Amino acid sequence: MTEPMRIILLGAPGSGKGTQARRMARELKIAHIATGDILRRAVEAEGELGRRAKAIMTQGDLVPDAVMVGLMAERLVQRDAARGFVLDGFPRTVEQAAALEKLLGGMGASVDHVFQLNVPEEELIKRSVGRRVCGKCGRNYHLISAAPRDPGRCDECGGELRARDDDGEDTVRKRLEVYQASSRPLAEYYAARGVLRKIDGTPTPEVVYQAIAGWLRGTGRR
Ligand code: AMP
Questions:
Q1: pTM for the full model?
Q2: What is the DSSP letter of 136?
């Protein structure tokens, strides 16, 4: 078996993390761990975690670090993560990054690549406000730039497409503010460890993926 690949995707809401992470997971046969998806499922299940997270998420704030780190500690020891993983939406603070480093260190592992997807703010707002997500398989669409063949239905699984509760313009602006506050320290954290790769997230998903794939093959630009 080849060495497991452990990847982190950083980027603002709407920067394409979910789309890229899904493809990476499929092509590299590694686990896609999206903390936002885990939390949305918890909200739907109406358990203790869901009740705590719901209001925070609808306001565009961050769920407390201790909750997120606990969640990640449980997720990373699941079997599929042993083959490697791509983290989508975690870490979001330096505290989370440090806790992740400790968790992985305890498993004799570390992060191989951190990709930061950069997209200008106005484009991020357009992308998030027009986003529709399949309730069944999680695939993302956009009302204008990546519309489904059948309005309201997922091309892949036929599931129902919905807007996210936190994709209204005001909440998106708040989420962007929250992201801006933590993105620089997080990028610095990983740059200091020599694993940060900055990627232009504005082109098509295919072009963005090829830029990432170049790094994964070891031919990326330094
Ligand atoms: P996402 O789907 O990644 O945009 O996440 C949706 C929401 O879930 C965020 O706006 C936060 O409220 C919450 N969330 C997801 N991941 C994290 C995290 N690592 N730390 C704190 N809150 C998170």
A1: 0.92
A2: T
Q: Residues with catalytic annotation? A: 17, 92, 131, 164, 175
User: Is the Cβ–Cβ distance between 37 and 115 less than 8 Å?
Assistant: no
pLDDT band at 176 (very low <50, low <70, confident <90, very high): very high
- 196 strand-pairing partners: 114
Question: Band of the pLDDT at 218, cuts 50, 70, 90?
Answer: confident
Q: How many angstroms is it from 79 CA to the middle of ligand 1?
A: 23
121-153 per-position pLDDT tens digit? 999 999 999 999 999 998 999 999 899 999 999
Q: What is the pLDDT of residue 2?
A: 72
3-state secondary structure of 88: strand
Q: Is 138 in the pocket of ligand 1 (CB under 6 A)?
A: no
**Residue 60 in contact with ligand 1 by CB distance below 6 A:** yes
User: Is residue 89's pLDDT more than 90?
Assistant: yes
Using CA positions, which residue lies closest to atom 1 of ligand 1? 36
CATH value of 5-119+195-216 in 3.40.640.10, 1.10.260.40, 3.40.50.300, 1.25.40.10? 3.40.50.300
CA distances from 171 to 58, 147, 175 (A): 7, 23, 6
